[in-house]
Amino acid sequence: MIDYAPMLKLTAFHDRHLAAGGRMVDFAGYDLPVQFHGIIAEHVRVRTTVGVFDVSHMGRIEVRGKDGLAFISRMTTNDAGKLAVNQAQYSVLCYPDGGIVDDLVVYRLPGHYLLVVNGANNTKDTAWLREHLSGDVQMDNVTDATAQLAVQGPKAEAAMQKVCSIPLSPVGFYWAAPCEVAGVKALISRTGYTGEDGFEVYMPAADAGKVWDAIFIAGKEFDIEPIGLGARDTLRMEMKMALYGNDIDKTTNPIEAGLSWVVALDRPEGFIGSDVLKRVEAEKPARRLVCLEMQDRSIARPHYPILAQGQPVGMVTSGTMSPSLNKGIALGYVKRESAKAGTEVQIDVRGHSATAVIVKPPFYKHGSRK
Amino acid sequence: MANIPNDLKYAKTHEWVRLEGDIATIGITDFAQGELSDIVYVEITALGKTIKRDDPLGTIEAVKAVSDLYSPVSGQVITANDTLKDSPATVNKDPYGEGWMAKIKVADPSELNGLLDATAYAELASRSAHH
Fold first, then answer.
1. What is the spatial distance between Cα A9 and Cα A27, in angstroms, rounded to a whole number?
2. Fold adopted by B17-125
């Protein structure tokens, strides 16, 4: 009996996941592995050597035309005008009220821009962008024709260097390079969502299996393993990297989410949402996304209330047991007055009042990211 | 395929029961530990209490999510497995042995007749399994 939606999309690596014993779940409309051997083991693999994530569900949108930069500048919060060719930047798409449409990575490549958005938001983002097209701009959603891998961990460079046609050590953090991986034309960038050193590889879907196999042969000496969505979540949480749908959404703005560093409010021409965000920045946001470290064994989960002196001050947006710290960690919004590091708060863990302390990000401070 | 011992009784909510005299040992099945994966905390909230069948017995925290443990029998919760405090992953490694969770002094041993046997539980588990 088939008890899941028959409409699930398959990535180019689907058969590899099944062969590796992946436990498959519906994620962003794709049949993707939540885990292979266990979330903790996979988490530790990425923190200690190298692991491979299939992130083909991410949306990939190419933007061309002489007004392409002006278009991206108007749609995104960061300053795309500062990008050199083959450079990338983390950025945010906002609504006019400052609420977040999505977070994304913007690549400036020779001849076009590449926007990499959350898989679950791909359709929404594409429509939002298309609605705002003006001038000489062509947009092309290339998600289905391409595949995307993240190879992450302190041994990621050593493994990838064996299959990549160019020297990788000169490729800096948030820089990209066109190259061949296992003889397949690809784009490689030193980016990721784990806090470890590592790369993302973009390639045609048709050749993706060949790339996967070559990377696993190259990484064998480092005990390379496929990593599921479960460990992707615990790894990003330890770094306080926001997850759309949990920590950020249309009801939150990038200032309160701690993303001011990718909001270029000094751009004279502004961007969608910039008027509101300037005001938020000037008046200071009423609440902030903070890191919470549990003081007992309990684990906070999304939507649990946060209290200070018995009064509600906020809500948990992400929470897990941190495999690296071996304690409960969480992200959540709290009122500005309660947001200072060192502040003790209570989290209502299903009726039990658990003490948590607000700590400075990231939770995990020993990542290999350069 | 998950291990489902023949000599145990099972609840639809994936707990197992082993009855010795009037003491029932409770744990979660191999299938359940596999579904939860990476168990990091087990708390028997009903310790010391007298509870009814299907009442909450405690909570199981896995890395991914929290789930409730329900009592497959009525009676008094007399013991919780303290060794799980330091090594909750024992539930993943040995769900029917060292990974037991609580002991209940049962009020009516015949209540176990209402639980599933291994064959019926195997069918339930296979219907719940991912593909």
1. 10
2. OB fold (Dihydrolipoamide Acetyltransferase, E2P) (2.40.50)
Give me the interface pTM, i.e. the ipTM. Answer: 0.85
**pTM across the whole model:** 0.94
Domain with CATH 3.30.1360.120 in chain A: 14-56+144-237
Q: From the CA of A247, how many Å to the nearest CA of chain B?
A: 16
pLDDT (0 to 100) of residue B128? 83
- The whole-chain average pLDDT of chain A stands at 96
Judge whether residue A168 has pLDDT over 50.
Answer: yes
Q: How does pLDDT run across A314-339, given as a tens digit for each residue?
A: 999 999 999 999 999 999 999 999 99
Q: Which residues of chain A neighbour B66 with C-beta distances below 8 Å?
A: 299, 301, 350
Residue pLDDT, tens place only, A211-266: 999 999 999 999 999 999 999 999 999 999 999 999 999 999 999 999 999 999 99
Burial of B44 (0-12, 13-18, 19+ CB in 10 A): buried
CA distances from A285 to A90, A241, A253, A277 (A): 21, 19, 9, 9
Q: Do B41 and A23 touch (CB under 8 A)?
A: no
Contacts of A25 in chain B (CB under 8 A): 130
CA-based nearest residue in chain A for residue B87: A326
Residue of B nearest to A349 (CA): B66
**CATH number of the structural domain A14-56+144-237:** 3.30.1360.120
**Which chain B residues have a beta carbon less than 8 Å from that of A1?**
127
The dihedral formed by the CA atoms of A69, A75, A78 and A79, expressed in degrees to the nearest 10? 30
